[in-house]
Amino acid sequence: MNKKGLLLVFSGPSGVGKGTVLKEYLKAHPNTAFSVSATTRSPREGEVHGRHYFFLSHEEFQSLIEKKGFLEHAQFAGNHYGTPRKAVEESLEKGIDVVLEIEVQGALQVKNQNPDAVLVFVMPPSFEELHRRLAGRGTEDAATVERRLSNAAREMEAAKQYDYIIVNQTVEEAASQLEQIVCAAKHTAGYLNEFIEEVEDDAKTCCK
Amino acid sequence: MNKKGLLLVFSGPSGVGKGTVLKEYLKAHPNTAFSVSATTRSPREGEVHGRHYFFLSHEEFQSLIEKKGFLEHAQFAGNHYGTPRKAVEESLEKGIDVVLEIEVQGALQVKNQNPDAVLVFVMPPSFEELHRRLAGRGTEDAATVERRLSNAAREMEAAKQYDYIIVNQTVEEAASQLEQIVCAAKHTAGYLNEFIEEVEDDAKTCCK
């Protein structure tokens, strides 16, 4: 049987609650590795190097790009963000599932390079509900909410290019959907390719 | 949300136990419809028209082919077998999942016509195990077992063209894998296409 871990890419618009869903899933699956991104932006208060992000200088980031040290990388508002390749590949080889929580642009880069990666997009039950959730935080003014909604609309245009869609009605339901998706993804013909070939080879030897 | 039923195509080599797995799944999901095939072969003892098969004459079968009345049809050992289209499409429209238990050749025809169909192939844990299961029935002589094994080897060559693979270790485990696959298949971007478009349209109206 295939012993390689599953590469899971998790995206969704800001405010949809994808971080909470992922936290719930990881609590139930502590053996799954969460990939820590690298960035050139400055740490915010409370952010810990190596836990929230690897905070790199522009030179360090550029040098890693040149060494093909990123699975994907992208630029937002003048800062670079990227997924360090080595830790991800080592975990997968050991049979450990790895989750990346990244933007649409990076997700499609990953799929392009690793067709076996499973792309999951978290959607709100409706656009009105996303509006309510963003406004309901109460921490942002109307203009910020509008800007986030408009970003969300743009991000959701990529949903169709993802493999699976989770509709986040409740956190528990969404985490359980993710669980089913991970199990099913480990039963695709692509993931079980080596196993299929083994059985086929035995069949050939036996039935010649 | 998408209310259309899922079209599930179930195949696997003779002796792998796919009928038993399906029976276990259908017991837990009595709302799923099982498609009864049509055939030109004669009923065996105990077989009931409309339950095990629709037994048709060659003329009736040919006339249904001409009216495009089959989702798929194929010929084995001089007899025709086919899936009547109407009952399947009516159930799907009503939001009822439909299972077809058919051969590889027909399964690939269905996928070709209905890219949304989910193809599931049941494999034995190993080829030796399939040998044991076929021989263990004790109802067939060695030559028959050899012929079935050789058929199984040929059938399994198509496994890679299926969407999902179930490895039948135990019936309960295999039925539960099928359950997860059905749930995940209802969360693909293809299946949820209408829902995605609805949310996108709302987003456009809201953010213009």
Describe what is shown at a glance:
The structure is a homodimer of 208-residue chains. The first copy, chain A, is of the alpha/beta class and 208 residues long.
Write up what this structure looks like.
Two copies of one chain form a homodimer. With 208 residues, chain A is of the alpha/beta class. The first copy, chain A, contains eight helices and nine strands. Chain A has helices at residues 18-28, 58-66, 85-93, 104-113, 127-136, 142-156, 171-185, 193-207; strands at residues 7-11, 33-34, 38-39, 54-55, 70-76, 79-84, 98-101, 118-123, 164-167. At the A-B interface, α5, α6, β9, α7 and α8 of A face α5, α6, β9, α7 and α8 of B.
Computed CA radius of gyration of chain A, to the nearest angstrom? 19 Å
C-alpha end-to-end distance of chain A:
24 Å
Indicate the low-confidence ranges of chain A by residue numbers.
Answer: none
Order of neighbouring strands in the sheet with most strands of chain A? 2-7-1-8-9
Strand elements of chain A, count: 9
Query: Helicity range of the residues of chain A?
Result: 40-55%
Structural class of chain A: alpha/beta
Assembly state of the chains shown = homodimer
Most extensive protein-chain contact, per-chain counts: A-B, 45 and 45 residues
Q: Please tally the helical runs of chain A, counting DSSP H or I stretches of 4 or more residues.
A: 8
Shape of chain A: globular
Note the main sheet of chain A. Answer: 5 strands, parallel
Range of strand content of chain A? 15-25%
Element string of chain A (H = helix, E = strand): EHEEEHEEHEHEHHEHH
**Could you tell me the mean pLDDT of chain A?**
92
